[in-house]
From TrEMBL:
Any one Gene Ontology molecular-function term assigned to this protein's record: organophosphate ester transmembrane transporter activity
Coiled-coil boundaries: none
Transmembrane segments: 98-120, 132-152, 164-180, 219-238, 244-263, 275-294, 314-331, 352-368, 374-391
Organism: Malus baccata
GO cellular component: chloroplast membrane
Superkingdom in the source lineage: Eukaryota
Annotated protein name in UniProt: Sugar phosphate transporter domain-containing protein
Length: 402
């Protein structure tokens, strides 16, 4: 599902947060400001925590105490005596000195796990074309992972009440619908084509912001979306794997993740991202189970499972489903960690590059043939998304500064 909480995908408006500087009697004590919260695009990126709990985002960082420790100044007051002079500053570790190395590692793992997920997901559909059931498996493996994490206290489970549940249900329902329809599209057409269609996500988000939320969208942002629409149209007209089921499902996914963005803004909470991710995954799992049983249940019982086992064997079939679910959960979790470390502009560029990586690797791995017009159209669409992401991040940064 095209985080973080949840990939991805969909574009959430940045929520600025900056710690006010603290002052002492003899002068200002400088602090390092928290980075503004980035936007999230792509349905698979379930980065709910960053969107739903802006107030405690900084507190979730494992380096918070190191970051917010007052700098030791030379202009100490004599009244402070030796206690101030003898104060020891905790040693800064390797990653504290070179934070870009850790950030680069998170980017690499985010891309790596996302590419692996998309490739494994498509390979499963080649011998087991049941996207509703596979969607349930994705969420189920993630829920088991979260339950185990709660059991060992990493993290400690946050309490849930009726009011919070009411706020999270609409978010989880939209997430579930967007996730299932994304998988239906992946099963029906080439991975590269689905990602090209999902490049229209910024257009749906801009339209929802303008006409549903009543937010004013600058003309420059609207103009930057023109290449996206044109590029997707060019790619769709000549895509060799085109079919209406894959196209319509990808479009429904875009709309679902757009509404997920809207509802998430109404569900602001101070719960940490990992707990929110777990709760929303649990709710989404219960939402996805009934459609899977109704739509695919009879076929699965009659011949679906038997055909898959006959083709690849029981062990490979079960392990493939387990690993694809685990990669789905982990790449979204890594997306959360990545977004907490970078500014909105960096995230915007990174998200576009991630889509390029997925499209490129899927073409190489599966040997999908694309026409020249499809390739040009895809390039234009991705370039449009990059321009839109750059302009939007720049506008949000200017708002934050002002």
């Amino acid at each position: 599902m095209q985080s973080r909480v949840f990939s991805r995908a969909t574009s959430f408006a940045p929520l600025p947060y900056q710690r006010k500087p603290s002052h002492r009697e003899n002068g200002a004590v400088p602090f390092v400001s928290a980075r503004p919260i980035g936007a999230v695009s792509e349905g698979g990126n379930l980065i709910w925590g960053r969107q739903l709990r802006p107030a405690l985002l900084l507190e979730a960082s494992p380096m918070k105490r190191e970051i917010l420790r007052p700098c030791k100044t030379a202009a100490s007051s004599p009244a402070e005596g030796d206690s101030a002079g003898d104060a020891k500053v905790a040693p800064i570790g390797f990653f504290g000195k070179y934070p870009f190395i850790l950030t680069g590692f998170f980017f690499f793992m985010w891309y790596f796990l996302n590419v692996i997920f998309n490739i494994m997901n498509k390979k499963i559909y080649n011998y087991f074309p049941y996207p509703y059931f596979v969607s349930v498996v994705h969420l189920a493996v993630g829920v088991v992972y979260c339950l185990i994490s709660w059991a060992v206290g990493l993290p400690k489970r946050a309490p849930m009440d009726a009011n919070l549940l009411k706020l999270l249900i609409p978010v989880a329902v939209c997430h579930a619908l967007g996730h299932v329809t994304s998988n239906v599209s992946f099963a029906a057409v080439a991975v590269s084509f689905t990602h090209t269609i999902k490049a229209l996500e910024p257009f749906f988000n801009a339209a929802a912001s303008q006409f549903i939320l009543g937010q004013s969208i600058p003309l420059s942002l609207w103009l930057s979306l023109a290449p996206v629409v044109i590029g997707v149209s060019m790619a769709s007209l000549t895509e060799l794997s085109f079919n209406w089921l894959g196209f319509i499902s990808a479009m429904i996914s875009n709309i679902s993740f757009t509404y997920r963005s809207i509802y998430s803004k109404k569900a602001m909470t101070d719960m940490d991202s990992t707990n929110l991710y777990a709760y929303i995954s649990i709710i989404a799992l219960f939402v996805c189970i009934p459609p899977a049983l109704i739509v695919e249940g009879p076929q699965l019982i009659k011949y679906g499972f038997n055909d898959a086992i006959a083709k690849v064997g029981l062990v490979k079939f079960v392990t493939d489903l387990f690993w694809v679910g685990l990669f789905y959960h982990l790449y979204n979790q890594l997306a959360t960690n990545t977004l907490e470390r970078v500014a909105p502009l960096t995230h915007a560029v990174g998200n576009v590059l991630k889509r390029v990586f997925v499209i490129g690797f899927s073409i190489v791995v599966f040997g999908n043939k694309i026409s020249t017009q499809t390739g040009i159209g895809t390039g234009i669409a991705i370039a449009g998304v990059a321009i839109y992401s750059y302009l939007k991040a720049k506008i949000e940064e200017e708002k934050r500064v002002s």
